Amino acid sequence: MELLCQALRWTADAAFQIFYYATKFVHPLLGFITYWFTGKNELQVVLEKNIPRQDRVLQVEAILRKWKAFDFENMSKCSLAEIYEIASTLCYENNLHNRKLKIRFKYCLEKIIGYEKLLKNVEDVRKIHYNPYDKAHEKQLLKLFSLLKPESQISAVDQRWVELGFQGKDPSTDFRGMGLLGLQQLIYLCETERQKSLAMLSRSLNPRHGYPFAIVGINMSFLTRELLLEGHLKSFFYAKSRCHLSMQELHDVYRYCFYRFDQLWAINKPENEMAFGEIRAQLKADLLSELREVDLGNRIKQFLEAEKMSDVLEVYDSEVMANAAALYDIAVKIDPFLAELSCVGERGFRLLKDCIENGLKMEKPDEDVVAQHLYHIFNLMDSFRHVKRRTICHRYFNHVCTILDSLPALTWMSVASNPVAFIQDVIEIATFYTNRILKEFPQKENGLHVQFVEQWLKALESLKAFVQKYYADGFTWKNVTPGLSTCDATDVELFDKPLPPPPPPANLSRLEKSVEDMHQKLFAQINKGLDITKGLRKVTPDMQMHKNPTLRTATPVCKPTVAAKPAHLTKNLPSAKQDTTRTPVLTCDDKKWFIENHVNNKDIKIEITDMKQVMYIYRCENCVIVVKGKLNSIALDSCKKTSLVFDNIVSSLEIINCQKMQIQTMGTMPTLVLQKTDGCMVYLSKEALNCEVVTSKTSEVNLLIPTEDGEYEERCVPEQFKTVWNGTALKTTPSEIA
């Protein structure tokens, strides 16, 4: 029996020796045979394969590890320039003269050494033990507590650390195994995914199915390091397009592991913490399966994008939408009209949220398609544009302008760069109207108007802060570059297919010669002087119509008939002149008169019964309007060839976008405002001689001043001005020719 056992041992030893020498000598022998028949070594064969980048890097690493001259331990200390120098030397020694193969080899070498550097950095951080007497270490520990429980403060040793999942009141003892790596990764999780980490902490405190949050976090650090040491993460990191690996990428893997553990724990619902080992083993098996299927990168990328989307939308809801919605509670206390107006603003903010959510899921469209993405916001702005025009004499006209003129801020996604400055410009426009509100309603309705202004500006400022935080350089659409690509970034067609040659040079000599000939002919004709007319044909009397009557009766030469366009090309085209007829309006709504869309109406007479009434005249053409009585104000907008006669005005008369107007006041008119108006005759009464006239972008404005003999003296309003610097300020005076 002993002899049999000894024979079996000898047989096993012999088999091991045979296997050892076979792997030691047969593999080089196969490489030599391959080189003998193909003229290529093993490295060249691998680099020429069109395989996924991670597979190529793994095969190149396996070849380099067989070379005794290649020292992996010291390679992690090399700089990028030294790596390129080593790669160039190895390319020369292995006859890699093809540019494409050189780039592939350098890429593989950067990935391999980058992984070794990452491994060394992780070990360096792990070996730093937590020191309770080190102020920097204590500061990091307290930062972790402030992220999870910002409402309270704590010391380094406190019983409340148990609430975060530590084993006792002194959490420093739990970091013995992973050092500062476990603490840093917990802080990274809580900083990047604040809401998610708080949700997981809340689930971990479940009395029946809870788990120690901090201890699990430290164990996830151990699992991440274990996957890194065993080389399971090589395929994941080698598949990334970035050559330089950082600790942040490892921290993202850690976040994903913690997230998956929380999911598995919630699904299994273990009765106690003793099931931790089983769930951890299940998690590792799932991760290894995803790594074998080269699917971990896509899973992590989708997880990070989903977390970013949820974080962005949660911040938008809590900080932006909350301020926009709070405006309604203030507006409804003032007037139902303002309540409806605040709903318009809130609806705009809600539409912007939908646009952000959809934009995070879609590829970046072309610039001309971005406006279509914001279609509902632009449609909202267009649909309420007439409200501003109809409420020009309304008591809350400045409130309307504040809301409606602020809506363009919601279109910041269409701004390619620096949308924060765009929003700030809109806020300044809104501030112009809010200042009017504060001046007109300083303490009315118990200061509710002041609260209305402050709340709306707060909503706009919160939108600006939101964009500054997440999209300071413009909106970032969904990144469609896959996390794990099966094609190599270095496999570019430029290496195999050279760029097309430039177009042949133009035959400039022929062009210059033809131009020179034309110049010579022109100057030769000019030099003829009076003889230049000798080349013209003589017109005989029979060719002249006034001397040859037969030419008058001849049929005129008609232009060739142009065929009509096919029906399918013209049936949907609008006519050149469309019908623009609008329904005339003459009505009084409460204290507001509306006169709109009248054409050729010479008999419009209005009797004013209350001096608080106001009048708005819009799109009237070739009309005569007579207003009897005393009213507050009159506004004319987009009228043509219209005459207005009125008795008295308390505040002002405004003329905007009008042409060829005639105005006559029979009584008082304190202020006359003209904007973008061409042609206006204003007949003043003796009571209106102290009228203040304000003009901007106007022309042909004449004031007719009454004289003692009952006639009018015409004076024109200056249109041209001269501005000079007098040493301290700009001085503007009407030009002498004006």
Automatic annotation (TrEMBL):
The domain of life is: Eukaryota
Q: Which residues form the C-CAP/cofactor C-like domain?
A: 574-719
Q: Which residues does the UniProt record annotate as the domain ELMO?
A: 136-291
Q: Which GO terms describe its cellular component?
A: cytoplasm
Any single GO molecular-function term of the entry would be: actin binding
Please name the PROSITE patterns in this protein's record.
Answer: C_CAP_COFACTOR_C (PS51329), ELMO (PS51335)
Q: Which biological process terms from the Gene Ontology are attached to this UniProt entry?
A: actin filament organization; cAMP-mediated signaling; cell morphogenesis
The text of the family note is: Belongs to the CAP family.
Q: What is this protein called?
A: Adenylyl cyclase-associated protein 2
This protein's species is Trichinella pseudospiralis (Parasitic roundworm)
